[in-house]
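User: Could you check the structure of this?
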Amino acid sequence: MRPALPDALRPLLELAYNLRWTYNAPIRALFRDLDQVLWETTGRNPAALLRRIERRRLQEAAQDAGYVARVHALARDFHAHLSLPSWFDTHQPRGAHLRVAYFAAEFGLTDCVPLYSGGLGILSGDHLKSASELGIPLTGVGLLYRHGYFTQRISGAGRQLESYPRTHIEDLPAQRELAPDGRTVTIRLEFPGREVHAEVWRIQVGRIHLLLLDTGIEANRPEDQVITGALYAGDRETRLQQEIVLGIGGLRALLAVGQRPNVCHMNEGHAAFLVLERLRQLVRDEGLPLRDAQDAIRAENVFTTHTPVPAGFDAFSPELMRPYFESYAAELGLGWGDFLALGGSDGGSPFSMAVLALNHSGTCNAVSPLHRDVSRALFRSFHPPQHEAAERLEFVSNGIHNRSWVSLEMKALLTRHLGDRWLREPQEPSAWEGLDAVPDAELWGVHADCRARLVEWVRQRLPQQLERRGVEPQEHAWARQVLDPQALTIGWARRFAGYKRATLLLRDVERLRRLLLGDPARPVQVVIAGKAHPHDDEGKRMIEDLARFAADAGVRARVVLLANYDIDVARVLVQGVDVWLNTPRRPLEASGTSGMKVIANGGLHLSVLDGWWAEAYAPDLGWALGGTDGFEDPGHHDHVEAGALYEILEREVVPLFFERDSRGIPAAWVARMRTSMRRLCPYYNTHRMVREYTERFYLPALLPERGLPSPAAGSLVSGPATP
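Assistant: Sure, the predicted structure tokens are below.
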């Protein structure tokens, strides 16, 4: 139930329950100004703040004419934004019948809505935000995890400690989806020997609805209430059950709220069971032969893969599948063996969600050009080989939602010189042309301010991190003086996994010490963050190695390992670092988007030529590490690339950063900042990405059935700008 507010403040409810505030600073300021302490203790959650704030404070705000005027002005702006014709309205008038359902296992929208673990979720969240701004008729579908992903602490020995705090669902900026009779919309799923029920919740993201399914209700058995308990937790059967709820339950939830999508976009294979539900509807309810039903849904489905390795695709044993899907096989008129073949299983091998999605999607895409090539080889290696899917696999490069990731300081600078078109139409190269006219001193000054803010933020956070570990305040006074606001600041933050090689910098510890401490006139520092999957022992060992190095009294002022990497930590890092370091073992990075966020904030990228950087790199934009693969010995591979990394840092990055003109500005460095932003930002954004999905995949799935031509190829963006 929404909280009651004084009449003068009632527009706050609408603003709080629409996540447009996640990328609108004036709206966030409205809630922060009500009670700054409560704003922080609620995790910067407007809905929770309104539920918990004292009535007296609300009455005071309602009597404040200036505050009330701000509330109503922002409410008018909010309604004007939603009512203005969008890009889709003005550029795709013949797509009026399009209805896209976008399925994902995780959505990273903001930290107080903990429905994500990492990059896949962040991309899904940014996809929704850009779809809203562009006016795409799209609905998101996911799961409402009552415990989210785990919260990370790092012990004194460097061990990762995981906990799953319960989300107070009533505090979320979410609402139960209500039927016309006022009852909560609930869908039913057939599980072995029982029914499982899921309530449908809705989160509003601008124009976009995000439907979330929750099994944590009294109508279910205790063991079924925890199906949507936590993201990527539990055993294989729990994972299977989650994906049944997402794919089959998600499709039923759409129908239950009156939405009948004509395009289903599966962002990874977690939702691929929707294929089986749709087939059953067409065969059982509409009487289509199975092959005709397969052709029909194939035209409607889009599948995006984000992994370059077989282990990244979910697959389930036939023995685990049978109790849940034997009835599906019967209703489709298939024997059990033929049913398993839909997922590439021969009866002994696992049922692959990727194969199910590939064979029932008219369009399939990878997320970078190199990832497309790697995925084609991967699909051909499947048993049985997926040659046809490999041949038609395309790519759509990932991007970021600029409004969500660019610092307030950089937004102000760019808007002052470029106007606001770079925010409204970031996919247009002409919107960024004015960057060349931005004075060096201003561009450098804004970035230096963001670096200083990062340093101050770390100095506040690190002591709190140590206190949670049990360190007495007198023993961590040094933590309030870590880092140097004038030092070259390198960031590395992502999931700790073996192939991401977080410890590549530690291959030669003494050389690293010299880099950090060897020249007092050219200080260098490193900020590191990330989580390892709870079952990834190799990733956890990397955290331990980095924790030991960062705890060394000789370097601890220059190397910081931050615990509990999340959206808020990521935002501060990408806005403040000078160089973003990315060290995957090529070609195991599908895309990566954190470096794109750094570029948009004036930082520079130093990365292995993998993922998006293999497509984007040019010598005047950043630095490329390695670019070779095929080493038979991974240890030797790491040794070679670690040496190359030290060389680049020592001979190129550090000298360029500290080469200052008479004004104290590193003019050559700033020129590279400006060039990177001007050439890369127009392409690596989710406005361009969502437009591509719409023009290349969504509309062609709809338009031919109505006898309408597909969008002209010339309307599509073809790649990052070249000099």
